[in-house]
Structures are given as structure tokens and as C-alpha cells.
Amino acid sequence: MMDVIIIGGGFSGVAAARILHKANKSFIVLEARERLGGRVYTKRFENGQYLDFGGQWIGPTQDRMYALCKEYGVDYFETYNEGYNILDFGQKVKKYRGLIPKIDIISLLNLDWLLRKMERMAKNIPASKPWSHPKSETYDNILLSDFIKKNCITQSSHKVITYGLETVFACGLHTISLLHALFYIKSGHNLNGLISIKDGAQQHRIVGGMQTLVDRMAAEFQSKIHFNHPVESIKQDTNSVGVAGDGFEFEAKNVIIAIPPPLAAEIKFSPELTSQKSQLINRISMGKVGKCFMVYDKPFWRDSKFSGQALADEQSPFQTLFDSSPKNGEYGVILGFTIADRAEDFFKKSLEQRKQAMLQKLVDYFGEEAKNPTAYHDFTMTDEIWSRGCYAGLYPVGGWTAFQNAYSKPEDRIFWAGTEASDAWFGYIEGAVRAGERAAGEILDLRS
Ligand SMILES: Cc1cc2nc3c(=O)[nH]c(=O)nc-3n(C[C@H](O)[C@H](O)[C@H](O)COP(=O)(O)OP(=O)(O)OC[C@H]3O[C@@H](n4cnc5c(N)ncnc54)[C@H](O)[C@@H]3O)c2cc1C
């Protein structure tokens, strides 16, 4: 009988497969889509250009990602981060340098104080068991939005931190608890790192796109990957686990599940999962974000000393913009993040309306040259049936204290991976890799 069936060919499933392959175990990967990568998706165009429609950045302390890049000979480069950023508040466009926008001094002091306060609070949360913090119940029942509102004394500080955090969590701040936010920050080390390019989670990009890495990781065991194999049911007994879908059935000693929680909730388990796990996977929702790309012959804004970064209030469809051009600026790409309610409204418009909305903003920021893009593309994983949203699963309010580590706990022969099963870099590709490697390790330990 085969040793392991891995469900899901995202970074987590592939990271698990890689460990099992090195340990000479027999396994297959069942992947619903016709490609690897899941929430990482590099769209490659006929003219040789590429865009990362899913995850794209890595940064310091994401040690597994850097080690994998080294092992597979995948190059990375610094995210462009020079010059003036744009602040677009109240229909006024201002430029500023550095991480914190040019707003009035009271708002600046308030922001600085609040960021420090959140850093201090997150530092004390044990990422491996956030429910054990003495104030976990209180924090888990406060909405992040209420906490931010209570601690902001000006409208500007409230706006800046709200839009920054929406970009970090990919959701409206009323959808998560303070505890989930603090856990997420701690799992990625600190808030400053999560919002920064330099020395932060947005520091590097992969040459050729993030999918290059996952494809190379899987190259040695391509024949073991079954594409277009969405799993519908998992049945385990004392000796084995049976995994089935439309037109296929496999059996193995163990299974690793490496898919987003809402999709795990749609699999029929027999016997049923424990009630803790089952209730949790049915309550975790996914974040909502769209990535919008305006492509130019060159990153012309750099000549006028603009970084390509912007932070904007509700009158813009985009919370934040970044320069997402490839290495050496071979062509120019501005990436806009539209998140939560803004994403909902934005994707109701036609493609042409969406393009015009982004163009208008770029002309406002960077002048007439912005009027001549070579292409516009946008993408949201919310519309993808095998993702249902992103960047990651959002614990329900009160969820950490009620369900604790139910998500990552094995259920007999079923082991749990995916970025949502990681206590380090939860929500990030690094977290996906770590969880996949951990799940594979749990199976290897069992059998040694
Ligand atoms: C727009 C966007 C931007 C992001 N930016 C970043 C970033 O810059 N840096 C970063 O570190 N992270 C980023 N992330 C998050 C990161 O991409 C994810 O955390 C990570 O890729 C998750 O990997 P995973 O393997 O856990 O899950 P997934 O990538 O979701 O993989 C799960 C796989 O399982 C498959 N699947 C689902 N259901 C079934 C089923 N029933 N049967 C079989 N297969 C199934 C799916 O098709 C998918 O391939 C971003 C995500 C998005 C969407």
C-alpha cells in the first residue's frame, strides 16, 4: 500500500511531497487544478512578460523560502523602494518619503504610539498557543476595527493604520479579532516587518515569478502529481485511508491535507472529523483581495523619483500600490491592491471600467505618461473555486480561544498542512512550506 496521499499541490503540499520523496516514501499528490502553486500563480504571457497573480514577496526570517531558492537555483531581487511615495487622502495627492505618510503631527504621534502598542502586545502572544495568553479571551472578543478606533484620536491616523492593516490581513478589520491580528503579527515576527519592504515581508521577489520555485521543487516527482483530481471524500479505518473523487479512488497508509480550510470543510469525512475541527473549518472564512496590474514599456515613474507606492482612502479602489516591475525594470508594472469592500465594489465593474479607474489614479499620481500602458490585468482568488479567497483563512471572532490548535492536530491517519496550519508565518508562503514539512515529518516520525 502507498505510504501517503497528499491533497493539494500548493507550496505546502509540494513541500510535504519533497520531504517524502527525499525519504524514499511512496506517495501521490492529488491537485484539483491543472497547475501547481494554488494561491501562488504566475501568469506568463506570449510576449515573455509575467505577473504574479498570487503570492509574490519573501523577506527576512522566511528562512525556508531562502533555503529553497538556494537549493533550486532560483534567483530573487530587491523590490524597488526608492523615491517618493504617494498619499491620496480626501482627493488630495501628496508625496512623502519613508514608511509613514506626511500627515499632521498629532496624527503622526498617535500612529507611532499605536504601532508601538501593537508591537508590544503582539510580542507577548505565544504564536504556538495564542489562547494561553492571560488576556486571550478579552482580545479574542474585541474586533480589530473597534480596537483601532478606540486607540486613534484623529481621522488621519485612523485611516492610515486601517488601510495599512487591511493590506496586511486582506480583509476588513471588523472581520477579525484583536487576538487573531496579534497572533498573525507575532507569527510573522513584528508589525513593522509585515508592513515594510526594506527588512520586511515585501523585500524580495522571485526572478521569473514565484511559481518558478514551486515548479522546480516538484520537478523530481512530476509523475506522482495527478492534476484535475479534486478530492471529494476521505474514509479512514484502522489500517488505511481511502481518498476518492469523480472517477478516481486511491488508498494509502496516511493522508496530508494541504488545502484552504473552507475547501477542507467541503470534503466528506468518514468517520466524521472531531467536532472541534469540523466546527472550526466550517467557520474559517477567507480574506478578499484583488491584484490589479498596469503594465508599461518601462517604469517611467522612477525617472521622476517616485517609488510607485501609494496609500489611498475610500475614494480610490486601491488601498495600496507598489512597483511590481521585474528585475532591472525590463518593463514597468504598477500593482494595486483592492481589498475587502473596495474589492467587492471594484469587481462589479466591467474590465474596461476597472482599467479606466486604475488609469485615472495613475495619471493623478504620475502624470500624462501613465496614459499609455501596454496592458492591464487583474485577478482575484475570491472567484477561484479552489481557493475561495486570500491571502489566507481568517479565524472567526472568539475562534482561537474556542478551538485552540484544533486545525493542525492530526486526526488518526489524517495530517494537516497548509499555511493555516503553521504558527510561523501563518498566511504566508513560508508558513505553507513549514506546515507541509512539519506534516511530512509527523508521518516519518510515526513510522520510524
Ligand atoms: C493575491 C495574493 C497575494 C499574496 N501575497 C503573498 C506574498 O506576497 N507573500 C507570501 O508569502 N504570501 C502571499 N500570499 C499568501 C500565499 O500565497 C499563501 O499563504 C500560500 O500560497 C498558501 O499555500 P498553501 O499550499 O497552504 O495553499 P494553496 O496555495 O491554496 O494550495 C492548496 C492547493 O490545493 C488545491 N485544492 C483545493 N481543494 C482541493 C481538493 N478538494 N482536492 C484537491 N486539491 C485541492 C488547490 O487547487 C491548491 O492548489 C498571497 C496570496 C494571494 C492570493
Automatic annotation (TrEMBL):
Keywords recorded for this protein, A-Z: Oxidoreductase
Limits of the Amine oxidase domain: 11-444
KW Glycosyltransferase (keyword) present: no
Residues that coordinate or bind substrate: 337
InterPro entries per the UniProt record, alphabetical: Amino_oxidase (IPR002937), FAD/NAD-bd_sf (IPR036188), Flavin_amine_oxidase (IPR001613), Flavin_MAO (IPR050703)
This protein's record includes keyword ATP-binding: no
UniProt family annotation: Belongs to the flavin monoamine oxidase family.
Protein name: Monoamine oxidase
